[in-house]
Every structure is written in structure tokens, then in C-alpha cells.
Design a protein that fits this description.
Elements: H1 7-31, H2 36-44, E1 57-58, E2 61-62, H3 67-86, E3 90-92, H4 96-124, H5 140-166, E4 171-174, H6 178-196, H7 200-229, H8 243-268
Parallel strand pairs: 3-4
Antiparallel strand pairs: 1-2
Length: 279
């Protein structure tokens, strides 16, 4: 007998998951900094170095994630939302041509990230790595655009995989086609240009969207993991049936963020970037 299918087990899970979600969220709320932006900082703190000089600012207030992570996670969150509206239950990966573009996005992300990391090491350890030349001086423009390109690619691959895992009846069409990919890319480029204009009107919602994009990606990945462990893949027919797996994914994401926050806070003693890393 499969214990996952017994009524008693299902009833216990339906009680356990919401209670665990409340406890995890309450614990994270308790340890995280005060204020709405403080809570967003605590989300970014779990996945980003949060170096002040490498972040956008609202006045003197650093955004929850660095410039690269801001681009990556806001774009991923927006791309998932965009596909939710235009793609529905489409479960096929994009065409080879679009995948090739994603490979270019990945290469740009890796090259700019590696060059930026080398520059950081040179700033923090003068003289030790001077024999290794930088390709160029890192800047926020490249961090934002390479990050957002990576975010688009992540969401475009994740979305059809999620649909392949969830639905009993699937729509066997590409979740992202050239037209929708072009619209999404233009939208992200326009938002990036607005971010670079350094307007508070834009940066405030981007702070929320980047942090929520981070949490959404983690929750979705953990939800899929939960579904696979519970052997519920390809059993869902309606979005209303997803409340328990999504809540379980959210709970696991919060537990991960809470654990990393506590460990990093214990190690560094600050909610800001890693001490000693600037540039």
C-alpha cells in the first residue's frame, strides 16, 4: 500500500503543511529586519552578496539585491508571470533558435560575472592578481542586462518543466515562441532602461519584484520537488488543486531562507554585504 495515498496521511499533511508554513514564516518575520524593505533585504540576503557598491540605491538605501541579482530575479519573476498569462499549460521547451539565444545569455552572464569577480578580488587583495588582466571595468549596466538575460532564460526553461510535472492533460506547444519571446525581451529592456534612470518611482517596485521573484523561484522549485516526492506528478487538472504543493514549496523556501539568514548573520553580524568586500 502506498502510504502517500491513504486518507489518514493526506489528512495529516493538510494540517501539517499550513501549520509548518505559519511557524516558518513567523520565525523568519521575527529574525528579519524591521520594515517592508527590511523584510525584502532578508530575502535577498539568502541568495546575494549584497555588496553596497554593486547595488542600486533609493537615495542612500540599498536595494535588497545587487545589480546583477536584481536583474536576474525581477526578470525571472516577470517572465514567469508573463508566461502564466500568455502560455497557460503549454509544456514544450522553446525552439532550438530561442535556446541558442539563451546560451548566449548564459555566456554573457558567466563572462561578465567572472570578470566582475576578478575585479572584486583585485580590489580586496591589491597586488596579488594584478598579472591577470580584466576584460573591462565592471559596471551596473552590464550587471543589470546580463542578470536580466539570465532571468529570462531561467524562467523560460522552468515554466514548461513545471507544466510537464503538474498537468494530467498538457498543451504540447512551446511555452515561449519567437513573438512572445520578443515582446518579453523588449519589456525587460524597457524596464532596465527605467531602472538605470535611477528613478525612485521605478526602483521601489523593482525592490519588491526582485525579492518576490527570488521567493517565487525557490517556492516553485520546492513545490515541484514536493510533488515528485509525494508522487503526484501529472495528476492535477485545475490550478485550485495546487494550493497544498505550493504552500509546501513556500514553506520549504522560507525554511531555506531562514536557515541561510541565521547562518550568515551569525557569521558576519550584519544584514549588509560581506564585511571587507567592496568595489
Amino acid at each position: 500500500m502506498n502510504i502517500n495515498r491513504t486518507p489518514l496521511f493526506q489528512a495529516l499533511i493538510k494540517w501539517f503543511v499550513p501549520i509548518a508554513a505559519i511557524i516558518a514564516f513567523a520565525a523568519w518575520m521575527y529574525i528579519s529586519p524591521e520594515g517592508a524593505l527590511g523584510k525584502l533585504d532578508a530575502v535577498g540576503y539568502a541568495v546575494c552578496h549584497r555588496i553596497d557598491e554593486r547595488s542600486f540605491h533609493i537615495g542612500d538605501r540599498q536595494l535588497p539585491l545587487c545589480a546583477r541579482c536584481t536583474g536576474e530575479f525581477y526578470a525571472a519573476g516577470l517572465a514567469l508571470l508573463f508566461q502564466g498569462f500568455v502560455s497557460g499549460k503549454r509544456s514544450k521547451l522553446p525552439s532550438r533558435g530561442i535556446i541558442a539565444v539563451f546560451v548566449l545569455f548564459l555566456l554573457a552572464f558567466g563572462i561578465d560575472g567572472s570578470n566582475s569577480y576578478l575585479y572584486l578580488l583585485k580590489q580586496t587583495s591589491p597586488g596579488r592578481l594584478d598579472q591577470i588582466p580584466n576584460l573591462y571595468i565592471p559596471n551596473h549596466i552590464l550587471r543589470l542586462f546580463t542578470g536580466s538575460g539570465m532571468g529570462i532564460a531561467l524562467a523560460a526553461v522552468l515554466y514548461p518543466i513545471v507544466n510537464q510535472t503538474l498537468w494530467k492533460v498538457q498543451d504540447d506547444r512551446p511555452a515561449l515562441e519567437w513573438k512572445s519571446f520578443g515582446i518579453l525581451t523588449i519589456l525587460i529592456v524597457c524596464i532596465n532602461l527605467l531602472i538605470l534612470a535611477d528613478s525612485h518611482i521605478v526602483l521601489y517596485p523593482i525592490a519588491y519584484l526582485s525579492a518576490m521573484g527570488t521567493l517565487s523561484l525557490l517556492a516553485i522549485v520546492f513545490s515541484i520537488l514536493w510533488i515528485m516526492i509525494m508522487r503526484q506528478d501529472n495528476t492535477f487538472e485545475h490550478p485550485k488543486q495546487l494550493w497544498l504543493p505550493l504552500l509546501a514549496g513556500f514553506t520549504l523556501a522560507m525554511l531555506m531562507i531562514l536557515s541561510i539568514d541565521l547562518l550568515r548573520l551569525q557569521f558576519t553580524g550584519t544584514w549588509s554585504g560581506f564585511p571587507g568586500l567592496t568595489g
